[in-house]
């Protein structure tokens, strides 16, 4: 895909945190995701990258995604994914795994109303 074709991919501006690593031995860097499409993203952070460098980024609801640095400008860089992702699932609310022990709370409106006479002192 040429540069002109890549620019036609729909991108959504957003702000979310993600983890980025340059290799499996490299420590994880926290980055801010500024925009996202199915083919890549723009990240901002204090990592040292150069154009063409291979890396992986961990995205919410998707996991680790392989890609490479497309461009660098200051502390921002463009990352092109090796394979397209479902960008809508990244923007969706994070889902808790079934074995997490997470118990959703009921909304306040669904809770039984208690009058002061029903309360007891401890």
TrEMBL record:
Gene Ontology molecular function terms on file: cyclic-di-GMP binding
SUPFAM superfamilies on file: PilZ domain-like
InterPro entries on file: PilZ_domain
Domain PilZ: 6-90
Protein's name in the database: PilZ domain-containing protein
UniProt organism field: Novosphingobium sediminicola
Top-level taxon of origin: Bacteria
């Amino acid at each position: 895909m040429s540069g002109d074709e890549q620019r036609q991919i729909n991108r959504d501006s957003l702000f979310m945190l993600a983890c980025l690593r340059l290799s499996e031995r490299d420590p994880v860097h926290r980055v801010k995701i500024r925009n996202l499409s199915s083919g890549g993203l723009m990240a901002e952070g204090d990592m040292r990258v150069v154009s063409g460098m291979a890396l992986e980024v961990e995205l919410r609801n998707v996991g680790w995604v392989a890609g490479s640095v497309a461009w660098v400008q200051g502390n921002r860089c463009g990352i092109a994914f090796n394979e397209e992702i479902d960008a809508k699932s990244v923007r969706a609310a994070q889902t808790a795994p079934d074995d997490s022990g997470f118990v959703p709370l009921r909304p306040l409106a669904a809770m039984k109303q208690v009058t002061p006479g029903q309360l007891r002192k401890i």
